[in-house]
Amino acid sequence: MKKQNLNIAVYIDMENVASSEFVLEDVMNSFLSADDDYNCIFAIKAAYGNQARAKKSLKKQIVEHNFNIVDTPKIGSEKNRSDLILSLDAFESLYLDTPRIDRYCFMTSDADFTVIADKLRKFGKEVWLVCKKSDKDRAILTKSFDNLLFLDDFCPDTAPKVSNDIDRLFIQAVRNMNQSNLPTNVSVANDRMKAIDPSFRVTNTNYKTFMKLIKDMESKGYVVSETLDTGENRITEICV
Predict the structure, then answer these.
(1) Single pTM value for the model
(2) Which of 63, 137, 151, 214 could cross-link to 20 by cystine, CB 3.0-4.6 Å?
(3) Rounded to 5 degrees, what are φ and ψ at 238?
(4) Looking at residue 178, what DSSP letter applies?
(5) In degrees to the nearest 10, what's the CA dihedral of 211, 212, 217, 223?
(6) 42 strand-pairing partners
(7) Using CA atoms, how far apart are residues 51 and 105, in angstroms rounded to an integer?
(8) Residue 77: is its pLDDT beyond 70?
């Protein structure tokens, strides 16, 4: 059966998150979390902020992920309109419905975004927030979003310490699998790896087959797998 598309919109308040060090790639991959029968697609990627004062390391990551960057220079000495423009763009996408967005993801700790979050949820949209862990007890945030992620969990120090890109890709893939569906066929992990990196083909690696890759990942302690009498190979536990 053909998978349904789950369209994702990501909006970054650049100045609000600039004080945190995080790996944007890991944050983006976390947005792909969904049931196995969905094909996740980034339909909108937009970042807002005063580009004259933008943090270079953050902007570099945003450019590498092909975000649409919206310059929002200050008016006078204080006012920055990025939060207003961002919110209006998100609501406009709801109105236009082309493409239809299923999951809205905001990266900010600004409580002003609870207004657009509540509005989107009223229209049946799933709304996620990535903020600082120190904000997790702010009731206005926890009550306005369907899911909260924390920038602190994506800092370089907490990124997986792995020896190569395939290990890192595999870890990102299995972390996004729905663990409530375990045990599940190993092909789900293969599909997740391709979703994160469309260029991935196990035949182009030294493993050649996905089962050899799974066995190596199991030996490194990333997952636990089993082979049934029917020959089906399943992942039974995710350990990362």
Answers:
(1) 0.76
(2) 151
(3) -110, 125
(4) -
(5) 30
(6) 8
(7) 21
(8) no
Tell me if 116 sits within 8 A of 84, measured CB to CB: no
Q: How far apart are CA 20 and CA 74, in angstroms?
A: 21
Contact 49, 72 (CB under 8 A): yes
d(CA 42, CA 10): 8
pLDDT averaged over the chain? 88
Q: Where are the beta strands (DSSP E) in 34-146?
A: 38-49, 68-71, 103-107, 126-131
Q: Tens digits of per-residue pLDDT, 148-170? A: 999 988 887 765 667 688 998 89
Element (H, E) at 5: strand 4-13
Q: Residue 41 pairs with which residues in a beta bridge?
A: 7
13 or 175: which leads in pLDDT? 13
> Residue 19: what are its φ and ψ, rounded to 5°?
-80, -10
Indicate whether 129 pLDDT > 90: yes
